[in-house]
Amino acid sequence: MDTFGSASEPRGKSPNSSAPNNSAPDSINQKLVDLGRYRDKRLFLAIYDHFAPRLKSYLVGRGAHSEIAEELVQEAMLSVWRHSSTYNPDKATASTWIFRIARNLWIDRMRRDKAHLLTSLDSCPTDLYPDLSFQPSLAPLDGDTLKSAINNLPQQQAQLVYKVYYQGKTHREIADECDIPLGSVKSGLRLAFGKLKNALGGEL
Amino acid sequence: MKPQHHPDSSSLMSYAAGSLPDSIATVIACHVSTCEQCQRNVAEAEQLGRFLMESSLPEQSEEESQHIDLAPNARDDILALIDSDEYVEPQVVVESDVQEAPSDVPLPLQPLLGKSLDNLLWKSMAPGLKQFVLPATSGTLRLLRIAPGTSMPIHSHTGSEVTLVLRGSYYDEMGRFGAGDVADLDPEVEHQPATATGEDCICLIATDAPLKFSGLVPRLLQPFFQL
Ligand SMILES: [Zn+2]
After folding, report:
1. Name one GO biological process term (chain A) (predicted).
2. Same domain as A99, residue A17
3. CB-CB under 8 Å, A115 with B137
């Protein structure tokens, strides 16, 4: 079963797209670097056309309503426009950088929505994803290798990874939903992470 | 000193995916903020996340794709947004050599707690045991301050429970846990922690359970209050 869909080629069908469909990782990274330098709107739109539909799909998968997802996509892309000059291609691929932005916005939104649950007066939020002084440089991962590693995971481990990343489920939610012990959720994820790392030569 | 005990990779994965309960995510963030080994693992798990995000355009029927496709005016809207945007990236302040006063409050908690654990309004729970409850939008989050040489009852964890030592240390069957170390036990592992002598042990403890039914504290209090 192909839990994750095809991944290596972008299957982006963005009907609005007028940009050439050139979305090899290197070229996207370069576009983001150039955007930081030249503030060119055509470059921005090329990045937008590539990522916006994927971000929306990702957010809807996590349970965001269509309008909220769209709002967050725009917020994320505005962030990309604003902060592109701080993007460092040696530290992360463009898509990892944008993934972090979207993830953090989604979490901020969830926390804001639940802020009424905070009994404490000092509901000043903690910073869950601080900018760290040490940002490891990782070799860019090979999409095809990762895709086949994911497809080679035992079904249950693939399901766990899917539920964590696509559905945003906590370990306990997964345990309840699948009626398996919490310890099995943790060990299944642990094994999956190890296998994916191994398949990529010790580095994801 | 480098931490000896790290979060389980299942927790680091979920942290990278943004899928931990608020309380547990906070504890993981506090450890990761000082642990290069875990920063690397999180960065790797983020790479996996972005790969899955990038490939998150599944085969769609016409009907579904209307749900996923952006609104027709989305592209015009974002152009209007960036046209009127006046944000200016702040100049990065180069860190000077001036050393900040050392603090055992983890970086992610400093906006909330300031720089001193000693200035908090600790609430006494039992002889030798004080707590300070922190806000979390899901799960429970608290600081426990345990007097030196205190032995706790044997217990296991029914849900997710993650502990980070901020000051002092304790021992259990797994070894010694000092400042920076994380206990991210599989549930049902029984252990009997005891604090070392010399100084208070201060831990940050998160559970994924609602406040009333949760975690270590009620069980800790059982012998005192016969709960
Ligand atoms: Zn660590």
Report:
1. DNA-templated transcription initiation
2. yes
3. yes
